[in-house]
Amino acid sequence: MRDFATLFTRIDESTKTTVKIAALADYFQTATPEDRLWTIALFTGRRPKRTITATRLREWAAEVAGLPDWLFEDSYSIVGDLAETIALVLPPATRQTDKSLAEWISYIRQLSTLDDDARKAGILAAWNGLPHTERFLFTKLLTGGFRIGVSAKLITRALAKATGQDEPALTHKLMGNWNPDTATWETLIDADDPTADLSRPYPFYLAYQLDSFDDLGAPSDWNAERKWDGIRGQLILRGGEHHLWSRGEDLMTARFPELAQLKDYLPDGTVIDGEVLAFQDETPLSFNALQKRIGRKTVPKKLLTEAPAIIMAYDLLEQDGKDIRDTPLAARRAALEQLVAKVPQTAPLRLSASVTFETWDDLAEARDASRSLNAEGLMLKRKDSPYLSGRKRGDWWKWKVDPLTIDAVMIYAQAGHGRRANLFTDYTFAVRDGNELVPFTKAYSGLTDAEFREITAWVRKNTLQRFGPVRQVPAEHVFEIAFEGIQESPRHKSGVALRFPRMLRWRKDKPVDEANTLDDLKEMLAMYG
Questions:
Q1: Which of 6, 43, 100, 275 has a beta carbon 3.0–4.6 Å from 312's, enabling a disulfide?
Q2: 364, 401 in Cβ contact below 8 A?
Q3: What pLDDT is attached to residue 353?
Q4: CA atoms of 352 and 334, how far apart (whole Å)
Q5: Is 492 helix (H, G, I), strand (E, B) or coil?
Q6: Residues of the chain with pLDDT under 50
Q7: CB–CB of 374/229 below 8 Å?
Q8: All residues at 6 or more sequence positions from 280 whose CB lies less than 8 Å from its CB, including other chains
Q9: Does the CA dihedral 191-192-197-201 come out positive or negative?
Q10: Cα–Cα distances in Å, from 168 out to 84, 175, 203, 339?
Q11: Among candidates 57, 105, 100, which has minimal Cα distance to 82?
Q12: Which of 123, 128, 136, 130 minimizes the C-alpha distance to 52?
């Protein structure tokens, strides 16, 4: 654990990519194979499940520290992170415990099998044997909330430096449904065959937002298609089985059982990149329809009928068991078209059709029609481009439609977390309904640090009431809220919920009586919901 804490500190103290890569590479060359594997798992989101509730940890930490609950809670609201608060308020350790990262994770898992008293004794004993940083990390692992600002790309670069392997091969190895219980360092990293796991997807190719056509050259060099509003996924058919992976490496096969029939029509050794859509009468349904199926392990017959799913195919990555990602897009797409043409219309597979255009103005007109087709905008892909991994500039661009917007009034504020723990950055917004203000959404991003500091100073001087960490403030400030979609929601007083809300700008020029109304929201729901 000491070595892992040193690694964490080196990464946390620097913003330089080269420093982080060097720290990780050094660690991968010196740590035990078990600790290396767990480090990769933790840094790529494969965290152990929560062992204990945050409420229990707060109670026990306050007790050990000799603090009244209110003082611990005030400290927590200022620090903004529970594990950091606990590490700071607990008295210094009276002994030293020397366990490896893998041993501590095993210890934490054993705690989950104990009764409350034994679990408390085990946690307090661990706290008393760890210095500050290791205590912080142990508590993070207890809560299942360990995160660090390290991308998967940075991990693969460090692994490449430590092992001498190629980055693309390592990126592929880290994809899929592995964890330290099902893999070892040798089978995951040292093994020569990256396709040993037949379910493993390829790294997804991601696009940047298009701001200008200036550097794109001739329109004839590009293929355009709709950016469909669903779940990006890879359909994999290998070894007589099929697997469906999301872009976030979530295995979704069981959630979309209708795709199993594609094994009858597509050859083994096929990998398709596409969009999972709710689809009926040859028309994509809204994302709201698909959302009802997200998060379910099993799908009832009613939902299968109400929101049948297909995969809208964008690209062909593997053909007859051969990786064809280096083949130009035009050739991959031609092969995909031939493949889809052989599949009957009754099967849940469609080709994402190319959008015909001769000029950039033609393309702009096509983009404007996106919302009426339940699409987010357009994708532009250079016809001679390979299928790369990660987000790259130059060959693939997304050109999304402008977001929906509404002017709303801030009525509550709450402090942020991490580096923003001392700033009020999380706001609740309301729209007008006669003489009342009806809350309808929260947002916490979109403003500059200077604006957050200015609002924080105002909140501290103008707080009307406190509800735990939340402060009610006078209804004086109007903000333009941007969002990608709107849907009906009986759980909210307003009757609506927004998709991806964020603050577009602080409308200092607009008085509260010119903010939008609940009727405006309902009109948008009728039009875009």
A1: 275
A2: no
A3: 95
A4: 12
A5: coil
A6: none
A7: yes
A8: 307, 308
A9: positive
A10: 36, 11, 9, 27
A11: 57
A12: 123
**For 385, phi and psi rounded to 5 degrees?**
-80, 140
pLDDT for res 40:
93
Check: CB of residue 404 under 8 Å from CB of residue 528.
yes
Q: Which amino acid, one-letter code, is at 179?
A: N
> Quick count: other Cβ atoms within 10 Å of Cβ 516?
20
Contact by Cβ (8 Å): 503, 446: yes
> pTM of the entire structure?
0.70
Give all domains of the chain, ordered by start, each with its CATH number: 2-143 (1.10.3260.10), 205-400 (3.30.470.30), 404-528 (2.40.50.140)
How far is Cα 187 from Cα 192, in angstroms, rounded to an integer? 9
Q: Are residues 348 and 310 in contact, defined by beta-carbon separation less than 8 angstroms? A: yes
d(CA 48, CA 62): 25
Q: What is the DSSP secondary structure assignment for residue 203, as one 8-state letter? A: P
The DSSP symbol for 260 reads G
Place of tokens 């390592």: 170
Q: How far apart are CA 295 and CA 297, in angstroms?
A: 7
Q: Report d(CA 25, CA 33) in Å as an integer.
A: 13
CA pair distance 299, 293, nearest whole angstrom: 7
Assign 219 to helix, strand or coil.
helix
Alpha-carbon span 318 to 325, nearest angstrom: 7
Measured from the Cβ of residue 399, the count of other Cβ atoms closer than 10 Å reads 21
Which residues, in sequence order, are CB contacts of 470 under 8 Å at separation 6+? 412, 413, 414, 428
Tokens of 152: 């998967």
Q: 303 is written with which tokens?
A: 């939902």
* 479, 379 contact by CB (below 8 A): no
